[in-house]
Amino acid sequence: MTLYAHTAKESAIAVIDKLRQQGAIALLAGGCVRDELLGLTPKDYDVATDALPAQVRKCFPRAREVGAQFGVILVRKYSYDIEVATFRSDGEYLDGRRPENVEFATAKEDAQRRDFTINGLFFDTEKNEVIDYVGGQKDLRNKLLRTIGEPVQRFSEDHLRLLRAVRFAARLGFEIHPDTLSQIKQLAPKLRIISAERIAMELEAILVAPSRSSGWQWLMDTGLRGHLANSWTDDVPADKAALSRLSFLPDQVISTSLSFAAIFCDISSSSIKRICHDLRLSNRVASNISWLIDSLPEAAKSGQLELADLKLLMAHKCWPELLLLVNANERAGGHSTSVYDKLIENTRDIKTSAVAPPPLLTGDDLKTLGINSGPEMGKLLSALYREQLNETIETRAQALVWLDVALKD
Ligand code: ATP
Ligand code: MG
pTM score > 0.90 for this model? Predict the structure, then answer.
């Protein structure tokens, strides 16, 4: 028997049907309507309803409250999490981040509080029709990103919308309406008021996407680029080189580390560390970025590298990304891909099992032989491991002989 796996859309419709059975209005809302109209696959399906949170909870007793103050409830249906939000209008924004309070409202008012016209659409799944209070369908047809209402007001309410505009324009390949664009440029310095974490999340979403070079171009054109992090000062030549590198990365979603590394290639190691810290990137991502960039000169020496050096590069979890970075870096510089080609050629025949074999001798072995642990032992072990990676020593017996000689020196 094969079990039918429901789709995310079917899950959302099941949630909608249940709410409707209780007499509520329930509609698909926001990004999923936009994406479906564009023929794209929505990331997730959100539901908006006139049912108050208490009614929604009654309908779905096991649902989780995720944004109690905003009336957002997460309903799990057919293994999908569907966000159910009560129609609301936002109160005053005083801090450039979030409203002081929200009030439950009508669908029309709910559309008005959303950011861009293309994000302000609803879909009635029963009548099979779009509900458009904000002119979103027209803008979708014209591939135009435009705020709902006055751009200056909408960007002043929530400064994160400045980056969201870039993210959507890049991802969808849309133009930004001139009035919306001029306010983004005007208000770009306000980015500094919002938290580094939120900036980093948007920036990451812009950069990992296949549309990353368009996103970066928008960041430069709007002046937002100069306000991403305090320590990340404007540097037009470096930014232009970054743009070129980004355009040579694969046409698919890539990792956060690779996308940032592609931008940081012309920046000093210490500045990169500071920027990663300012953006609150995780230690893991920051160290992967540094590894990728620090490995570029090493990779460029590919022809002269010993087998051990190649294997040490290959053993890193970001090795496939290093290859992509080397390739993009060479092409962006207007060169042939000779470094990349050499790297591929020199590593092609190295078996996966030979890349990071277990060491023939360990610290414990050396201790039994009477060698005290300490820097000396560390040096011996790594020198021996290089021999092993170079395949000049292949057995434990050979390793012991090598050690004997090394200790006599
Ligand atoms: P994605 O496909 O990237 O998830 P999305 O349009 O679904 O795009 P979300 O961030 O998931 O974007 O938000 C869902 C909807 O909520 C948006 O379409 C928009 O209507 C509204 N929204 C989200 N963030 C904001 C904001 N900062 N200001 C106003 N409306 C917002
Ligand atoms: Mg979404």
Answer: yes
